Amino acid sequence: MTSEERTAVFDAVVAAADYPVLVVTVQADGRRAGCLVGFTTQVSIEPRRFLVGLSKRNHTYRVAQRAERLAVHVLGSEQLSLARLFGGETGDDLDKFVHCDWTSGPDGVPVLSTVPSWFSARIRDRYDFGDHVGVLLEPEGGAMVRRAAETLRYHAVADLAAGHAV
After folding, report:
1. If residue 135 lies in a helix (H) or strand (E), which one and from where to where?
2. Which in 38, 75, 157, 159 has the greatest CB count within 10 A?
């Protein structure tokens, strides 16, 4: 099997898994940032731990390097416009928070007001995974505002061009 064939098979399997996409927000040194993330998972039951992958090319990654905590937001399937804002624009060029409803959460971390659920978390560690850094989180609080009829998934944003250079 060629390298291209292996890549195509892997990409097809990952697309078939149709993972949820989430929005991560952060605040540090008076700067807010947020981005759409597709690399996330719970990694421990006790103690509770969650892992988020942030692209090293992303404005949010640069702000998160100086942060102590961030917030993770679950989007409903009807929130494609919010996903496009946080995935298709870059914080280098645009204050995304001017274009959405949010409140100041724990330690000033922006919390998106219209999402079904979210949690805030303390950053426990960071791991270099290549073009992404894994941010290990310890959940501290959050809210289950409403249960989403359906969570926004990868297939809904697969054609979205990243706001930052790939």
Report:
1. strand 132-144
2. 75
Query: What is the rounded (10 degree) CA torsion for 60, 66, 71, 73?
Result: 10
Query: C-alpha distances in angstroms, 122 versus 64, 133, 134, 147, 153?
Result: 11, 16, 14, 24, 25
* Domain containing residue 152: CATH number: 2.30.110.10
Which residues on adjacent β-strands are paired with residue 138?
Answer: 122
CB 40 within 8 A of CB 50: yes
Beta pairing class for 102-104 and 40-44? unpaired
pTM: 0.91
Residue 94: other Cβ atoms inside 10 A: 13
Which pLDDT tens digit goes with each residue over 60-118? Answer: 999 999 999 999 999 999 999 999 999 988 888 889 999 999 999 998 999 999 999 99
